[in-house]
Amino acid sequence: MALLKEGGTAPDFTGTDQDGKSVSLSEYRGSKVLIYFYPKDDTPGCTAEACAFRDNLPNFNKLGVTVLGVSTDPEAKHRKFADKYSLPFRLVADSDKVIVQAYGVWGPKKFMGKEYMGTSRVSYMIDEAGLIAKVWPKVKPAVHPEEVLGWLQDNK
């Protein structure tokens, strides 16, 4: 797993969100986008992170930043997750793992001594020109949105 580097071009992608609507990174050109990758809908860490983004979304909106969550779960699972926790942002389904591989977040993981392939919890801030402005390779789910907002305030 090799993460993308700051300053590089963010790979464009097209997927579908929890409503089955097409979503492409290129449609957000001209504005900032935070893409946060997470392992699985409705698990403790992923729920904490999603709810923290939900609660902080007005602050992201004030700064002109769109938040997109990406996991390999299918649209229907994203829909259930979004409904259960009133998530007001788009969750991109990447069941074929094209996006997670393009962003270098798919790879070997370990849990309770077992090794498996999965998505690492990584976030990328994409600037208005489509370049990677910041990479967060190690994310603490419950406080990550505040960490991103702090970085945004410092880099206005």
Automatic annotation (TrEMBL):
One Pfam family linked to the record? AhpC-TSA
The record's section on InterPro entries has: AhpC/TSA (IPR000866), Peroxiredoxin_AhpC-typ (IPR024706), Peroxiredoxin_BCP/PrxQ (IPR050924), Thioredoxin-like_sf (IPR036249), Thioredoxin_domain (IPR013766)
User: Taking every annotated instance into account, which residue ranges of this chain make up the domain Thioredoxin?
Assistant: 4-156
An example GO BP is: cellular response to oxidative stress
Keyword annotations for this protein, in alphabetical order, are: Antioxidant, Disulfide bond, Oxidoreductase, Peroxidase, Redox-active center
Which Gene3D superfamilies does the record cross-reference, listed alphabetically?
Answer: Glutaredoxin
Record region (Disordered): 1-22
Enumerate the GO terms in the molecular function aspect: thioredoxin peroxidase activity
Q: What is its EC number?
A: 1.11.1.24
What GO CC terms are in its UniProt record?
Answer: cytoplasm
According to the UniProt record, what class of enzyme is this? oxidoreductase
Its biological purpose is as follows: Thiol-specific peroxidase that catalyzes the reduction of hydrogen peroxide and organic hydroperoxides to water and alcohols, respectively. Plays a role in cell protection against oxidative stress by detoxifying peroxides and as sensor of hydrogen peroxide-mediated signaling events.
Task: Describe the family membership recorded for this protein in Swiss-Prot or TrEMBL.
Answer: Belongs to the peroxiredoxin family. BCP/PrxQ subfamily.
Q: How does it assemble?
A: Monomer.
Protein's name according to its UniProt entry:
thioredoxin-dependent peroxiredoxin
Q: Source species, please? A: Chlorobium phaeovibrioides
